[in-house]
Amino acid sequence: MSDSETVRPGFLAIELDGAGWDGAGFKGTGFKGASPEGTGFASLAEAVLSAESAGFHVATFTDTPAPGRVNALQRAAYAGPITRTIAVVPEVDTVYTEPFHVATQLASLDYVSGGRAGWIATAAESREAAAAVGRSFVGGAALGQEAAASIEVSRRLWDSWEDDAVIRDVATGRYIDVDKLHYVDFDTAADFETPADFAGPAYSVKGPSIIPRPLQGQLPVLVAASLLGDGLVDANAVDAVLVSAPTPELLAAEVRDVRGRLGGSAAVIAELDVVLDARGQAAAERLAGTDSGRATYAGSAAGLVDLLAPLLAEADGVRLRPASLAVDLDELARLVLPELRRRGALRAPVQDGTFRDLLGMERPANRYAGTPTAAGAGS
Amino acid sequence: MTQHSSATSDDFTPTGKLQFGIFFQGVNSGTIWKAAESGSQTDFESFRRIAQTAERGLFAAFFLGEGLRLREHLGRPHALDVVGRPDAQTMLAALASVTKNIGLVATQNTTYNDPADLAHRLSSLDLISGGRAAWNIVTTDNAWTGANFRRGGYLDHADRYRHAEAFVETAKRIWDSWETPDGPARRVLHEGQHYTVHVTPRLPRSAQYRPVLFQAGDSPEGRNFAARQADVIFSAHPKFADAVEFRKDLVARSLAAGRGANAVQIMPASEFILAPTAEEAAEKKEWVRSLQIGPQQAVAYLEQFWGRELSEYDPDGPLPDIDPVVEETSETRGSGFHGAKARQLADQWRAEAKDKGLSIRQFVTSRTARVDATFTGSYSAVADQLAEYTRVGAVDGFNISPWLIPTGLDDIVNHLVPELQERGVYPTEYRGTTLRENLGLQTPVPSSETVRA
Ligand SMILES: Cc1cc2nc3c(=O)[nH]c(=O)nc-3n(C[C@H](O)[C@H](O)[C@H](O)COP(=O)(O)O)c2cc1C
Predict the structure, then answer these.
(1) Of the residues B87, B92, B138, which should be mutated to test ligand 1's pocket, given the most ligand atoms within 8 Å of the CB?
(2) What is the pTM of this model?
(3) What is the C-alpha to C-alpha distance for residues B203 and B189, in angstroms, rounded to an integer?
(4) Residues 117-146 in A contacting B (C-alpha not used; CB under 8 Å)
(5) What DSSP assignment string belongs to A326-362?
(6) How far is CA A237 from the centre of its chain?
(7) Which residue of B199, B286, B307, B360 lies most exposed, with the fewest beta carbons within 10 A?
(8) For B255-279, how does the pLDDT look when each residue is reduced to its tens digit (9 = 90+)?
(9) Is the CB of residue B217 below 6 angstroms from any atom belonging to ligand 1?
């Protein structure tokens, strides 16, 4: 597994949750995952800058409903202007959110982060979330369809302005070239091929977007492997897949399996929870009572390096979720990332690179470029 | 918790101070894109630069406008003006990390959002910025914009404020629900004509309790809605006599709503064209107008009302002699066209232009809304003029639309603000860290206890 000669060094992502920024300092409610001592960071700025200087390539922001947790996309936006290398990647739900808002918010995130934005598209299976927006509950296979539809709407809206749509042509008085703007005319019933039997409530979106094409052209879209499949999200519609397994030992095998099924079209990112021996406390003690259902590594920093080095050869990247942001990030920064770099397992972060660069993806051509019938009705 | 402002005192008291906001519109003909100094409308650097300049000038607030469908002109996207703007709350969350004191105001529509979702995101912005968020409530509604949304254009125009009021009440109850140190005291239920919302709020209160509420909308229903619900009105009445009249009207409506005479502040939309002397300012104004309303914009303005192409007409010649196409109102015809009686209007305009000897370009320049909203003159003369507004309490401040991005506030901050400070009518420092403190607003009374009209 780790002995392939051609492997490219991998990248590391870190989940920057905590008790929620800056409902930070929020305590109580028994919310699982909120570290009792808080995050250990005075502010989101401090946390994201620590992750960046530790050499993490990506910061992710979870958005599942929990008391005290601030909207993930806004946390990512806040982090954008104060960082230079780390990609900022929020979770955004596709089922109970307006696709038009989602697309324009994410495009905006790309602008405020200088092209370092991505999107973990999630599909909330939640009666609570349905009731909160006054919609009927969506479950089962329909979740994947909702995600697929929302991703498709976003991608069309991101392309709805060609790159050179803003022309500022003083002679003709035109700020934009309307031939380079496009109505997306998305329709779950008529025009959206993948799920002909779309199970959610049908809808349509007209377009064009209200913001020019994102800096990256298309933001990288990430989904959990569980959302991919027949009648769900098409692997070709995503740029990276988040792969989890019940144990660290099974993770590499799962990564290989998913990559085999995808055929290399998308990057593969392994998910790992980590609890390190730290500050005189054994990881096993610190771990007590938490179980996320994902592979969890608990132990020494050296042991984590031995696990990650081969995993980073197998997967394109690994996303770590530290049990305690401050405590584990400290250990990761001091002991784990430097050693992985020394072994050549970890890529060097690139200042002002885009998230697509990190994933090894070109800036995509615009699907509408050269389309003769541009925005318009015309007649 | 502060007491209700006394509902028995009918006497409005001028505060003697002005506050400035900047309104970054992003889609309009007021922002000049043809000058050498015109910067990007979308790069973050433009937003950072202008927000930080505003903060240096002790501005109370940075506003972003919103439009959820691109303006159209004769059935295609309108090509001549700046267009394409970031999502308001995403941009403001980013600006929160590079500013410290300035309020961050997101214009957000009540028709194309869900109350629980919007309330949550506004709380997020409020928490992330340390209590500096505000919501500029707008109610624009039409099936044309609705075509971008799942719910579509489901709302009748007549219902827009009834719906908005239920929406805002729901948002307030969500923000009020955080009563115990550990969490929400109650779930919030809204059973409405259009949908039912049942939500467990998830965020604690911010340093300013909840986002400040602005309202922009000018109909009588809009004003009543603001008198009941808002902290500040973003008004369209900057001219002195009109502003005084608007204040009287609003004080009456606030009292009728059971709130104090000073309960709702007023910040009209405005534009400043300033220079060291009156002559230089007048010249500058000519230059600004020539770039705002170029030949193509002037003709396009008429095309909205004529409903047809008029490109064969000379912008420096008289108004078209052909008659407009008379048809049903359509948003695709142009944003300025709202069901006006086209032929009557054309006749009236032709007569007026002929009377005054105005060309197409001159006529259109004289008609655009910002004409009323412009303060032109030397720094000191304009400062005197604004001091007079303050003396009588015509307004609480001005919401300034810069005509250049990102340098359009420089002369205001560098020259006008010091003149106003010398006259004692402009702050010399931020009063506090939250927007509510900086505006001098009271902490809200939880909505369940609010006296309802
Ligand atoms: C000064 C001012 C600024 C406004 N800015 C916006 C805006 O950015 N986006 C928007 O959708 N509507 C904006 N509006 C219009 C509002 O949508 C308003 O709710 C609409 O005109 C309907 O309300 P009304 O009939 O009471 O005027 C603005 C209105 C005023 C007076």
Answers:
(1) B138
(2) 0.94
(3) 17
(4) 128, 131-135
(5) HHHHHHIIIIIHHHHHHTT-BPPP-TT--HHHHHT-P
(6) 14
(7) B286
(8) 999 999 999 999 999 999 999 999 9
(9) yes
